[in-house]
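hey so u asked for the seq, here:
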Amino acid sequence: MAEQNNTSEQANKEKSGIPENVVYVGKKPAMSYVLAVVTQFNNGAKNVKIKARGNTISRAVDVAEISRNRFLQDVHVENIAINSEELQNEDGTKSKVSTIEIVLSR
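ran it, structure tokens below
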């Protein structure tokens, strides 16, 4: 049953257009995302991208560091990219939001 559940999760990710080796960091506790990163590497991924924007950037950095230092000592930071995106608010005004992408590699 666990295999069937895992297969359906992978199918859902493929349907949603989210690449399998990308972890989007949001408002959940950091350890939730650390588990996702560790799971990706344990499933054979050579690299994993951790993406975040706005106030969750610091949590993404925490996720990368916890993953590297506590769980995956053979993983290193391959690249860090910072950028900003322009988003349109509900009232029609535009605002810029900072983004980060951290690539961890084995």
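Helices lie at 2-16, 30-42, 57-71. The chain is about 40% helix and 35% strand.
lmk if thats what u needed
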